[in-house]
Design brief:
The chain is mainly α. Helices cover 37% and strands 9% of the residues. The longest helix is centred in the middle third of the chain and has 16 residues.
Length: 233
């Protein structure tokens, strides 16, 4: 079970799971996000990488708001890395990874799948509390207490976070080795009407930093614009 946003990190995680011999199902979310163009990217990635089934679950987190991604709040632009590391930004969606992982756990249980893959990262990220190793460990412990399959001992859930300790540059290098087409992916939090990335939000800046440090050009930023109108976690 791979949580697939259509971004750089989750696409790399899907490639890692395939490399490691897993038969992959993918789960994406239409949760009322302002950057719902990422769902088109997720569909392209899932098709290109041959997942067995791709499900887009629909939940409306706009009902709660509280984030620049789900409410009428301005997406911060041009923040320094120090700013990103210093506080939790307004683009944090309350409890989003907990919600997403809970859906993934439910989907996995219907398949008797024991492995959930998630593209969280504790190095090049925007300070989200649900991207930390201690959070993942706590969720995994809870998952094995919360399901029938776990209680009956038929399945022990493992949450895989293979990118946790990698920089964006290292993630891009790994994905490139595995044949990932990053031109299919989308990262921007505040894309224009045609899906073109803004270039100034945290996600765009971290993506650009990663490609620069990896010594590679971003294939989503060609002269004709992003492939299929595309622009992390």
């Amino acid at each position: 079970m791979v949580l697939l946003s259509g971004g750089l990190d989750s696409t790399t995680v899907l490639a890692v799971a395939r490399r490691d011999g897993f038969r992959c199902h993918a789960l994406s979310f239409d949760y009322g996000q302002r950057h719902d163009v990422e769902l088109d990217a997720a569909r392209r990635v899932a098709a290109a990488m041959g997942v067995e089934r791709h499900v887009v679950a629909r939940i409306d987190l706009r009902a709660f708001g509280g984030s620049a991604l789900t409410a009428d709040l301005e997406v911060p632009k041009g923040r320094s890395l120090t700013d990103m590391e210093g506080s939790i930004p307004v683009t944090y969606v309350p409890a989003r990874n907990t919600i997403f992982l809970s859906f993934a756990l439910a989907f996995a249980e219907t398949l008797e799948a024991s492995d959930i893959f998630l593209g969280v990262n504790a190095l090049d990220y925007s300070g989200y509390p649900d991207c930390r190793p201690e959070y993942i460990a706590a969720f995994e412990q809870m998952a094995n207490l919360a399901t029938r399959a776990g209680v009956e001992g038929r399945v022990r859930t493992v949450v895989h976070t293979p990118l946790m300790a990698l920089s964006k540059a290292a993630i891009i290098g790994l994905g490139t080795e595995l044949g990932v087409d990053y031109g299919l992916t989308h990262s921007c939090y505040d894309p224009g009407p045609a899906g073109r990335p803004c270039g100034g939000c945290d996600s765009c800046l971290l993506r650009a930093k990663g490609f620069a440090e990896a010594g590679r050009s971003d294939p989503a930023l060609g002269p004709a614009g992003p492939k299929g109108a595309v622009g992390s976690c």
